[in-house]
Specification:
735 residues; mainly beta; 24-stranded antiparallel barrel; two-stranded parallel ribbon; 10 helices
Length: 735
């Protein structure tokens, strides 16, 4: 092991020295580097598995369909945090004084646009004639429209416990002890785009373990599943979207997402949140966007339209979709009532239990958004109402007594934003209203009985946030934001800035700073002090914590960049002391230090070295350590239709608490950020080849080998052996 570490350190030094001579073309990897850093931080902050395709779908779309820098579409760069609101204002000012841009390098002449910013946005912008006012005809749509087909296959090659043979009697005795389907994950996607104004598409997906056409299930199991037994693609989604058609600013039919204000009242889907925090945590709502990913939660299904003229615009929407839920039957004095004990968001339908929960209830959402925007000021009002076909009644617990329960929930809020000169002020105030009425009328849905729970109680909740960003100089930004989300505030579709995924029962203050103290140097730092005003699932009392982050980055030249990052996060959890009667809260802290360098050797070889150390400790005296070292080598010859990317990494994390997240290059439209713990090594090889102009093939194989165990995984994912091998193959056909 010492020899291996010495070898890797030597490679760091040698490659560093060679990288000093690389000085020519502007890096096209800047955007990827930015997104990788944000995804890794997001993974660290979320315990559950995340569908990154849903989160990064807009970035993927822009890479294939760049926005015209001389059109109003450039606002999308603000929405995706690729440029700041200040940079957007300077961009508009430049065009007013000097006219449209003639070439992309001209962006460096705009105040606030440095070389790094231009490198980040270069892959997603273009310069062309503004065609937003051009008339749309069927002939133009057929001639200039872009078609794309994507097919993907992936599988873990070793046999997992969930696929081991089992007879029907044993399966019926333990219905969740096996997957009913095959281990392959399949996805097929079609998209059409006409100049970013008309878009359409559909998505088909089957997760690993879900039944497909060729899977055989016994008659006994089929009878048990009833109407839930079906084969084929488990998820089917579609969308038809249009924008900038006169008074119709945007319209969608099918699957879509909505994002308004700062995300406190309505922001379906995901956002980077704290992971995307840079010089400002201010969000720019995207309004209506079509959904083309295969994620099975956090979206609307129905119709929405935005109309606008002058400074006013309005959006109305309706969603009606079946969602996964655990439905149980409760005895009452009069009859039996169906209740929902939990809503499921994994999207997995592999076992008998998961299939019985599939599409168990109907969720309907109706609402709208009114906006007024003039000069430097914007204000908006959002309201929406949610119905569940079956009342939600959680298993009683101290920490969840303020969670949403019932059948109907109304949310409304006001958001505002003012950006002028060196100042930006933003905020949002929201209210939730949950009224459990007596004897509610049945709501149409897929279940046979829908009757409410008679409580007669009314719950009002409030939440708010306000922030200020100041730019005293072109190289310096400061942000301060205060948030206070009441413990009674309930919202199934919020995604505002905060600690954790629930905008409820917390308050905090965030201080952020971004500075460029010298050419090619950048410092990003923030402090987030927070407290939870009610119990959580891991703490039997109100608790508090903090999150400290600092990153210093430097561009040695146009093809060599490096950063050093430190993060310290402290929270509270229940003590696990076996000698006390009642578990009491204790502090725990995780510190992590990372060094990363990207560089080129010659023109064809792109390299990345990364080293990270993590230390976890808590007040009961336990200490856990982890480290990660990797070498990435990408061979990307110019003017060649192929490329190869290789990673060799070693890791040693004593326990899951000291785990390290490391982003991995993957096939297009797929993202991988595994949590590495234990002791072992990780390798993968990714290949890409363009057979001809329309068809591109990707293939990726990776293996994790553990040196401290004879089996890996747990439960149905348990593998007998010390290794796990994953395979992905993808084909993309563009017309």
């Amino acid at each position: 092991m010492k020899r291996l570490v010495f070898t890797i350190v030597s490679l760091f030094i040698v490659f560093w020295a060679k990288a000093q001579v690389a000085v020519d073309t502007l890096s096209t990897e800047a955007l990827n580097t930015l997104l990788i850093e944000q995804v890794e931080r997001l993974a660290e902050d979320n315990e559950e598995e995340i569908d990154y395709e849903d989160l990064l779908e807009s970035y993927i779309f822009l890479s294939d369909n760049p926005v015209n820098i001389n059109s109003d579409e450039v606002m999308r760069l603000v929405e995706l945090h690729l440029i700041s609101a200040f940079q957007y204002e300077e961009l508009k000012k430049y065009r007013r004084f000097y006219g449209d841009f003639m070439f992309l390098d001209e962006l460096e002449m705009v105040e606030g646009f440095d070389e790094q910013t231009v490198a980040i946005i270069r892959p997603v912008v273009c310069i062309e004639k503004d065609q937003s006012k051009d008339k749309i005809t069927l002939n133009k749509m057929a001639r200039y429209g872009k078609h794309q087909l994507v097919g993907r296959y992936e599988q873990v090659l070793e046999r997992q416990q969930g696929y081991a043979p089992i007879d029907d009697s044993a399966l019926l005795a333990k219905p969740n002890s096996r997957y009913l389907g095959s281990p392959q994950k399949l996805q097929f996607k079609y998209t059409y785009n006409y100049r970013n104004k008309i878009r359409a598409g559909f998505t088909l997906e089957k997760d690993a373990g879900e039944m497909f056409f060729t899977d055989k299930v016994s008659d006994t199991i089929q009878a048990l599943l009833g109407k839930q037994y079906q084969r084929g693609f488990d998820f089917v989604g579609f969308h038809l979207y249009a924008k900038d058609l006169g008074i119709v600013k945007a319209a969608v039919l099918g699957d879509y997402q909505l994002a308004f204000g700062q995300g406190l009242t309505l922001w379906s889907g995901m956002s980077f949140g704290k992971a995307g925090a840079g010089s400002s945590v201010m969000k720019q709502g995207r309004g209506i966007t079509p959904k083309g990913s295969a994620s099975e939660y956090g979206f609307m299904r129905g119709a929405a339209v935005t109309l606008g003229g002058g400074p006013f615009s309005g959006t109305i929407f309706y969603s009606n979709r079946l969602v996964d839920a655990n439905v149980s039957v409760a005895d009452t004095l009069e009859n039996e009532a169906e209740l929902v004990s939990s809503l499921q968001e994994t999207g997995y339908h592999r076992t008998i239990g998961e299939l019985l929960d599939r599409h168990a209830i109907r969720q309907q959402v109706v609402g709208g958004h009114l906006a007024y925007a003039v000069a430097h000021f914007e204000v908006g009002y959002t309201a929406h109402h949610t119905w569940l076909s079956v009342p939600l009644e959680l298993k009683p617990s101290h920490y969840n007594q303020f969670y949403f329960q019932g059948q109907r929930l109304t949310n409304q809020g006001i958001d505002f934003k003012y950006v002028k000169g060196k100042y930006a002020v933003f905020g949002e105030m929201a209210m939730s209203y949950n009224h459990k009425v007596e004897d509610p009328e049945p709501v149409e849905g897929p279940t046979s009985v829908q009757s409410g729970v008679s409580t007669g109680s009314t719950t009002l909740g409030f939440a708010g946030l306000v922030g200020l960003t100041v730019k005293p100089a072109g190289y310096l930004n400061f942000t301060v934001m205060y948030r206070d989300y009441g413990k009674a505030y309930q919202n199934l579709m919020s995604n505002a800035f905060g600690e954790g995924s629930r905008n409820q029962g917390q308050r905090g203050i965030y201080l952020g700073m971004e500075a460029a103290p010298a050419p090619y140097w950048n410092i990003l730092a923030y402090v987030d002090q927070f407290q939870f005003t009610w119990l959580t699932s891991q703490v039997n009392a109100p608790s508090r914590g903090h999150d400290y982050y600092v990153r210093v980055s430097h561009s040695f030249n146009k093809r060599t960049q490096a950063y050093l990052q430190f993060r310290s996060k402290t929270k509270m959890k229940n003590s696990t002391d076996a000698f006390v009667f009642s578990h009491y809260p204790i502090f725990y802290t995780k510190n992590a230090v990372r060094f990363n360098i990207n560089y080129q050797i010659g023109w064809d070889i792109h390299c990345t070295n990364k080293a990270e150390y993590a230390h976890y400790r808590n007040d009961d005296g336990s200490n856990e350590h982890g480290y990660f070292l990797c070498q990435d080598i990408a061979y990307k010859p110019e003017n060649k239709p192929y490329s190869l990317t290789f990673r060799y990494a070693i890791f040693d994390a004593q326990d899951y608490n000291a785990r390290i997240y490391a982003y991995e290059n993957d096939v297009l439209y797929s993202f991988s950020v595994p949590a590495l713990y234990g002791k072992g090594m990780r390798v993968y090889l990714l290949g890409k080849v363009k057979l001809f102009n329309a068809l591109t093939l990707y293939a990726r194989i990776g293996r994790t080998i553990y040196s401290d165990r004879d089996e890996n995984g747990s439960g149905l994912t348990l593998i007998e052996g010390n290794h796990k091998t994953d395979l992905k193959v993808e084909a993309i056909w563009k017309l």
